[in-house]
Amino acid sequence: MSKKQQPKKQQLKKFFRHKKLENIQLIEGVERTLTNNRGYVFKMPKPKTPVILLLSGGLDSVSTWKILVKRFKLNVYPVVFQDPKEPRAGERRAVKDIARYFKKPFGKLYHEPQFFTVSFLANEYRRSFDQHLYKNPQAIASFLDERGYFNVDLPGLTGALALYAMQFRNSLFFKSNLKINTIFSSVVRSDGEAVAHQTFTASRAIMLMLNGVMGEKHLQFTSLAFEPELFETYLDTADLLELQKRTKPALPVEKTWSCLMDYQHQCGVCRSCLNRKAALKTAGITDTTYYRQPLSSKVNIFNQVKQWLKKVLQYDRRFE
Ligand SMILES: [Zn+2]
């Protein structure tokens, strides 16, 4: 272990002591296994190496794209997974606008984001939400985080995306003979406080899973936020925003999309919009976003649940 990683390791234990969704034993077990198996846990690929980025059009993944290209000089192949039953037009528009904006400044390291159509939810699961969730207070409560926000938590979603990313990876191999071993997600420190599949623990477990299910020991799955080799602390959205500020071009904030709702403009009051506003403020970046409801107002949990159900299930009348 390098000198740099040693204090980070202690920091890890301290940091995760009070995080109920993190599992330090599991992280250490995976890291030990990977080290025994291939001699390292994570290695930042050399400049020009092709890597995959799971892109959503939000502040985290857009900042990650810019940092991977401008700071680490990697050939980044972004992929956007979209469920046709949950079209998320705002995200799609954001990805296209950002891609157009980055194309020239990224030069040869620019690669057009690819949209992959996948199904996040089984129809039967969707139906069981429809028929049972709204009348089961205990089930609704299981979706509320410590701060009382309703979290869109599709079981194990990041793990599913990592497996879908393997299809994208192989398609790049079929098409251009590219052999890609590293996949970046853009989860940040605070994501893992609310959602289990976005924890550091999940990130390490997924890396091991990919090695096992693909039968290839050099596959890496991680996020910039978590690697001791790269940064001194575990990063949050504001940290990624600050890091990307060190290189040009300036981030076109108003083109990114964070909102959980599917309106024409971002709502400005959902959990994700509030996090977005706070992170931009912390990073000292002017928020040029046009919000539907610019004045912050107290968000009613029931309304959040209602709107989310409507969005996921194309719910129409029951809550009108
Ligand atoms: Zn919103």
Provide structural commentary.
The chain has 320 residues and is an alpha/beta fold. The chain has one domain (5-247): Rossmann fold (3-Layer(aba) Sandwich). Helix content is 45%, strand content 8%. It contains twelve helices and five strands. Strands 3-2-1-4-5 form a five-stranded parallel β-sheet, with helices on both faces. Helix 2 (24-38) packs parallel to helix 9 (200-214), helix 3 (59-70) runs parallel beside helix 4 (89-106) and helix 7 packs across helix 9. The radius of gyration is 19 Å and the shape is globular. The protein starts with a helix and ends in a 7-residue tail after the last helix. The model is unreliable at 294-298 and 314-320 (pLDDT under 50). It binds zinc ion (ZN). Residues 259-261, 266-267, 270, 272-273 line the site of zinc ion.
How do you describe this structure in short?
The chain has 320 residues and is α/β, with parallel strands linked by helices. The chain contains 12 helices and 5 strands.
Helical fraction equals 40-55%
Give the beta-strand count.
5
Which residue ranges are poorly predicted, with pLDDT under 50 across at least 5 consecutive positions? 294-298, 314-320
Count of folded domains: 1
Distance between the ends: 58 Å
**What's the name of the CATH homologous superfamily?**
HUPs
Question: What are the defining features of this structure?
Answer:
about 325 residues; alpha/beta; Rossmann fold; five-stranded parallel sheet; about 45% helix; globular
Write the layout of secondary structure elements.
Layout: H1 5-16, H2 24-38, E1 50-54, H3 59-70, E2 75-82, H4 89-106, E3 114-117, H5 123-132, H6 137-141, H7 157-176, E4 182-185, H8 191-194, H9 200-214, E5 220-223, H10 237-244, H11 271-282, H12 301-313
Parallel strand pairs: 1-2, 1-4, 2-3, 4-5
The protein binds zinc ion.
Zinc ion (ZN) is lined by residues 259-261, 266-267, 270, 272-273.
